[in-house]
Amino acid sequence: MTRSLPASGLQGILSGATPPGLYRLPPAEPPQEVMDLAAEADWRAARLRLDGVHDKAAFLRRCAADLGFPDWFGHNWDALADCLTDLSWWREAGKSRGYLLLAEQWEAFSKAAPADARTAEAVLADAVDFWAEGESPLTVLLG
């Protein structure tokens, strides 16, 4: 499901040389640098900060807060999938070349709530697959 970031790194994803996907971000990649590179490449990017997140409810609350989900978000796995396959809440005027979601402190969340992290990862992977063939793909980096 989740792969290591290929040798081409983030630049490969942003340029289209590497296919969109669900990737592990090496710990040496500073989150703000990832956001800056995405912006320079005309990708819409968001940070999901998972520090202190230890269960499903906290994960979904953090998604809603950090990603700016719409009011209709129902705080369950199905609603998360709905938000990630309908990115109208994330779009701005104009078109982005792609969407990048950086989930920071993923390992800590995964250790604290392994079953919830596996479910979240599956939802994220399904969303990546949903957008893979579109003009503006979604890539998720687990940091």
TrEMBL record:
A Pfam family per the record: Barstar
Residue span, Barstar (barnase inhibitor) domain: 44-142
InterPro entries listed in its UniProt record: Barstar, Barstar-like_sf
Family assignment from sequence similarity: Belongs to the barstar family.
Protein's recorded name: Barstar (barnase inhibitor) domain-containing protein
